[in-house]
Design goal:
2 helices, 98 residues, 0% strand, mainly alpha
């Protein structure tokens, strides 16, 4: 049979271990949240650059390339249509974690 001091010591030890486990889990969660926020910031910047490149391609490069291939009203319609396309709004799939 264990003494009451030994049982008390084991209870305190278990409680201390639980506290350490909680702290370790909180640290892990904080690390992951920070990593996700960093990924979101980086991907948002990259997506903005891609959207800008796509817009440039659609509004300037493609109409100039088609100018030699198309003539008359067809060329004007293609240029008008491509000029009316709005800059894409690319959104990162990463969600903020509270």
């Amino acid at each position: 049979m264990k003494s009451s001091q030994a049982e008390q010591f084991e209870a305190i030890l278990k409680e201390q271990q639980k506290i350490l486990e909680r702290l370790a889990i909180q640290a892990l969660i904080t690390t992951k949240v920070t990593k996700i926020k960093t990924l979101k910031q980086n991907s948002t910047a990259e997506l903005a650059e891609l959207a800008s490149a796509m817009d440039h391609q659609t509004t300037q490069v493609l109409p100039e390339s088609l100018a030699g291939a198309l003539q008359g009203k067809t060329a004007q319609a293609a240029k008008s249509y491509l000029g009316a396309i709005k800059c894409p709004k690319l959104v990162t799939p990463l969600q903020e974690i509270i």
